């Protein structure tokens, strides 16, 4: 090494030719590890986005289910009233029919 070139620990010395393949292997392993970590980070970010999407869909379904429940209760009450009106009309018709039949018979025999 010449005295005019400053010392750099990242540049291998001229005499250490055997250290270069080791350093290169270590650098390749580090690069591979960095690549794997980047992939993992991207996968975690995508998973987070999917979880947020699923959460949004679940919230939407909950809101829709609540609206459906309210609508179903409203329809159930409407149908109950309609059924009661129909029963009342049938009972009223039977009472009127009985009055029409019984009153002339009672008036005729008195």
TrEMBL record:
One of its GO terms (cellular component) is cytoplasm. SUPFAM superfamilies: SNARE fusion complex (SSF58038). It holds the Pfam family Synaptobrevin. The chain crosses the membrane at residues 86-107. GO terms for biological process: protein transport; vesicle-mediated transport. PROSITE patterns: SYNAPTOBREVIN (PS00417), V_SNARE (PS50892). It is found in: Endomembrane system. Keywords: Coiled coil, Membrane, Protein transport, Receptor, Transmembrane, Transmembrane helix, Transport. Its main location: membrane. Belongs to the synaptobrevin family. This is Vesicle membrane receptor protein (V-SNARE).
């Amino acid at each position: 090494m010449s005295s005019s070139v400053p010392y750099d620990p990242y540049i291998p010395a001229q005499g250490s030719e055997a250290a270069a393949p080791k350093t290169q292997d270590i650098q390749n392993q580090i690069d591979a590890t960095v690549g794997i970590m980047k992939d993992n980070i991207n996968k975690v970010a995508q998973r987070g986005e999917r979880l947020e999407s699923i959460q949004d869909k679940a919230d939407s379904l909950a809101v829709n289910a609540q609206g459906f429940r309210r609508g179903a209760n409203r329809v159930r009450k409407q149908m109950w009233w309609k059924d009661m009106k129909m029963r009342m009309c049938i009972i009223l018709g039977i009472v009127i029919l009985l009055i029409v039949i019984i009153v002339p018979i009672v008036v005729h025999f008195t």
